[in-house]
Amino acid sequence: MDSLFFKLSKMAWTIVSPDNLFVILLAISLLLILFKPPSSGRKLLTLLTIGLIFLSIFSVGEWMLYPLESRFKHNAPLPERVDGIIVLGGSITTGTSQEWNQLETNQYHERLSSFLELAALYPQARLVFTGGNASLDPAHPTEAQFAKTYFLKMGINEKRLWIEDRARNTAENASLTKRLMQPQADENWLLITTAYHMPRSIGVFCQQGWKVIPYPVDHQTVPSKRYNPGFNLIGNANSVVQATHEWLGLLAYYLSGKTSALFPQQCDYSN
Fold it and tell me: Using one digit for the tens of pLDDT, what is the confidence trace for 249-262?
């Protein structure tokens, strides 16, 4: 069932991703102009143009990302004792890393650097990287194989390091890591991931019965400037794609029972 969910989610995103959807609608408007009464095609094209201009001027993506990024407190006080630190995959571009035979990362590199900082701050904590092959190609390399090499080069003691290399999505990050580490109820575990991804991540860990402590990084928004108009089509469009992916992910995880709340917050097992 997990494999079906993974494959369906990948295929659905290909269609509903805002950038792809825009191209599809643009093609439809052209076909309507060419082969149907042109007024319908012109109306659609006008709407697309207005939307594109609006997106170029206003940071719509940041408006969508900010509620996600502010869901959990950043730089929150940490406990004196930390038993384990988990970092989710998503920061390593595996195809490029394999091609150039070195670690290549994307804009989420702070997940890795924060992991190293916290590892030094809590020298007794167990360290876990979780991230497998998130591609539909089964022969694609895993993030884990590059992460392990990188962490060892950076001085992490191999005896402290656990590598989970089968997770393809956030739900599997939680379930497979719990199976690997067998956490105890009285232990303190930190969870590192990108700030806007933290609500969904906390949701799936809570659903697994694992009350981890959120440590959000990689903030994508600038709250003091998110309502300032400008002109940045590419940047604003990228933010919309990121935000849409995450909000749809929250919805899909909630509807499929992978989280118990549409907009998760810290776990509550009082009932």
Answer: 999 999 999 998 99
Is the per-residue pLDDT at 105 higher than 80?
Answer: yes
Distances (CA, A) of 236 to 54, 195, 232, 247, 250: 10, 18, 6, 16, 21
Between 137 and 80, residue with greater pLDDT: 80
CATH match for 76-219 among 2.170.190.11, 3.30.420.40, 3.40.50.620, 3.40.630.30: 3.40.50.620
- Confidence (pTM): 0.92
Q: Where in the chain is the domain with CATH 3.40.50.620?
A: 76-219
Among residues 250, 253, 264, the alpha carbon closest in space to that of 210 is found at 264
DSSP one-letter string for 139-198: TSPPHHHHHHHHHHHTT--GGGEEEE----SHHHHHHHHHHHH---TT--EEEEEEGGGH
